[in-house]
Amino acid sequence: MKLVPIYRIHTYVVPESLDRVLEGVLHVDDLIYGNYKNVAWHSNDGIEQFVPSKNSMPTEGDIGERKQVTSFKLEFSIPRDKHLLLKVIEEGIYPNHPWDEPVVQVTEAFETRKHG
């Protein structure tokens, strides 16, 4: 067994855009975990809440009014490589995400690998 340094990435996306965002990420990186590729997780039917400010360009909701939408949490990991991280966010998530300002959270972590 070994420990591998990774970035753990979470983003929240409406159900109808989940596949598009995931495919955008997979276009940048294969999301390899051990002997598997395209490894990602998502939860179903959470509620995302926000109030668009006057400087926003909301896809949903009106400026100054609270909006709640059904949202999925998409999460995956990549090797701890800052260049790859920026590419995944800027080329994989941002252009495929419907929100003006997608929530993207990144943590540094370790994953185990049983083999290799």
Describe the protein's architecture and organization:
Strands 1, 2, 3, 4 and 5 form a 5-stranded antiparallel beta sheet that branches. The longest helix is centred in the C-terminal third of the chain and has 12 residues. Helix 1 runs antiparallel to helix 2. The protein has 116 residues and is α+β, with helices and mostly antiparallel strands. It has one domain: Alpha-Beta Plaits, CATH 3.30.70.120. Helices cover 20% and strands 36% of the residues. InterPro entries: DUF34/NIF3_sf (IPR036069), N-reg_PII/ATP_PRibTrfase_C (IPR015867).
Outline of the structure:
The chain has a single domain, classed as Alpha-Beta Plaits. The protein contains 2 helices and 5 strands. It has helices at residues 18-28, 82-93; strands at residues 2-13, 41-42, 46-50, 67-79, 104-113.
Structural class by SSE content: alpha+beta
The name of the CATH architecture is: 2-Layer Sandwich
Number of beta-strand segments:
5
**SSE topology string:** EHEEEHE
Low-confidence stretches: none
The DSSP helix count reads 2
Q: How big a fraction of the residues is strand?
A: 35-45%
CATH level-3 fold name? Alpha-Beta Plaits
